[in-house]
Amino acid sequence: xxxxxxxxxxxxxxxxxxxxxxxxxxxxxxxxxxxxxxxxxxxxxxxxxxxxxxxxxxxxxxxxxxxxxxxxxxxxxxxxxxxxxxxxxxxxxxxxxxxxxxxxxxxxxxxxxxxxxxxxxxxxxxxxxxxxxxxxxxxxxxxxxxxxxxxxxxxxxxxxxxxxxxxxxxxxxxxxxxxxxxxxxxxxxxxxxxxxxxxxxxxxxxxxxxxxxxxxxxxxxxxxxxxxxxxxxxxxxxxxxxxxxxxxxxxxxxxxxxxxxxxxxxxxxxxxxxxxxxxxxxxxxxxxxxxxxxxxxxxxxxxxxxxxxxxxxxxxxxxxxxxxxxxxxxxxxxxxxxxxxxxxxxxxxxxxxxxxxxxxxxxxxxxxxxxxxxxxxxxxxxxxxxxxxxxxxxxxxxxxxxxxxxxxxxxxxxxxxxxxxxxxxxxxxxxxxxxxxxxxxxxxxxxxxxxxxxxxxxxxxxxxxxxxxxxxxxxxxxxxxxxxxxxxxxxxxxxxxxxxxxxxxxxxxxxxxxxxxxxxxxxxxxxxxxxxxxxxxxxxxxxxxxxxxxxxxxxxxxxxxxxxxxxxxxxxxxxxxxxxxxxxxxxxxxxxxxxxxxxxxxxxxxxxxxxxxxxxxxxxxxxxxxxxxxxxxxxxxxxxxxxxxx
Length: 646
Description:
There is one protein chain. The protein is mainly alpha-helical. It folds into five domains: 3-126, no CATH class; 143-343, Alpha Horseshoe (70-kda Soluble Lytic Transglycosylase, domain 1), CATH 1.25.20; 344-395, no CATH class; 403-472, Methyltransferase, Methionine Synthase (B12-binding Domains), Chain A, domain 1 (Orthogonal Bundle), CATH 1.10.1240; 484-639, Lysozyme (Orthogonal Bundle), CATH 1.10.530. The chain is built from 40 helices and no strands. It has helices at 3-13, 31-46, 50-57, 66-74, 83-92, 99-113, 116-122, 130-143, 147-158, 167-177, 183-195, 199-204, 214-225, 227-232, 241-255, 259-272, 277-293, 298-304, 313-326, 329-337, 341-344, 347-359, 363-373, 379-388, 403-410, 413-424, 427-438, 443-456, 459-467, 475-478, 484-494, 498-508, 529-539, 545-550, 552-569, 574-583, 585-591, 599-604, 609-628, 636-639. Helix 8 packs across helix 10 and helix 28 (443-456) runs antiparallel to helix 29 (459-467). It is globular. The relative contact order is 0.04.
């Protein structure tokens, strides 16, 4: 029996016709009635009126959102639903966000009932669920002959500094009983827990240690909590690996407060006790990275003393940034050529290699690199063009999707569901569905989907979707000219160029009008409510509630007004103001150098990854938007003059 016929067969043998075919998706003749009945069925289900729900549900078997109703019905009834119906739902409606949760709940229910045959058959697409992994391992450790591979899985699970679900304890008990858990394994996980600042977990892991070893764990806990005091009164031998880990941990913890004090303490301890090269590597690596975050010149020296492992990318990148910030161009050049080959080819490091060559007198080689980079669109391409006096390369190349590609994409049930939600004004559900669709798309499919989203007028999804692909040259999709009238009007009012405003909006929200950040920032320009209220009073713009801040025109007016204020507080320096808009004014003030510094160097030394990338993106986006607006781009070297204290 074909699957879609089998699913329809379930209408007559299942739970009142709730699981239905997911294969026919032609819209009903009366779309408005279908939408109305869909919403009525949702309401009936939410208030527990199952009779009305089932009656309504039977009325639109081919409606594309039918699977959502089935999901809502099933999600709290997994234990009572026959396996054949759950399987049919998952086969038919895998495009529904949350369908994976149905599978996970079903697997937990099967395990609780001891139905391992069905559990094993249906165990898939749950690699992100550690609890289910451990449930499966527990079963296999009792029943499978392939114990060696299972022990390797157990060891892989063990290698984390985070707490795992209680069911995993049984796996580790079996792993230990089989003789695979060594003291080194236990101490390694304890170390990971401390580095993740999971002190309670580290303490709990003591149960896997022999009794005589637990005193060392207590010493480690004391060192974590009060490193300054514990380092002053070491009364135990530190030649063992565990003791050395404890001392190293204390030094790094002390370095979080004062790098130079921690370094001095380490040198004193080295004179008193026997440490090894691996201890120096650990201490200098961590203190060097902390020194870089503090923009301390000692970072270069510390990081250069580390014997690097080939795969320690964080160390390599820290060395480059520390050398750039310190103006040690020869060290920067050596660090860049020591990067993995694929890293060296990135715009970022090609640019800084050219800068280091230029600063060390190798002008011709530097110019060759700048000329090649200037042919590429982006922050470093634009900076390179400024270095050689060239124009900015925009390289616009529209994505052309064939009618066949568009038809194939629109035929996907998940895309149809997203389109229907979007047409209904259910934006949140539409976004969830769209994201669910994107998970399985390849580069070309993402590009085609971006074209479709743009045609629907769903610009923020078009931007997001194309950014996940390799098709990054369609500037009309990636940098749309939305809200042009209010942006240009407010930019003129506050004396700011509109390209910069567009750059901030594009980076902050990608034109998602109702954007809300995890910390509460709102709207196109991601205004914090307190900032928005203060700015609204200053500008005499009445705002009613949070919805008032989400209104596009209000948000732009307040956002541009605040951007002007931030610019004034930051010496009318756009790079500083951009960093301040993202990270806050107090932080940026603390990052200003003691001596004047070239702006590209200052940006590269911003200690927060998010803010560093934010500034680079906004500066690049301003140049693209100048181009899109049809004006001569303001050069980045003019937007980013020398950085100095006021």
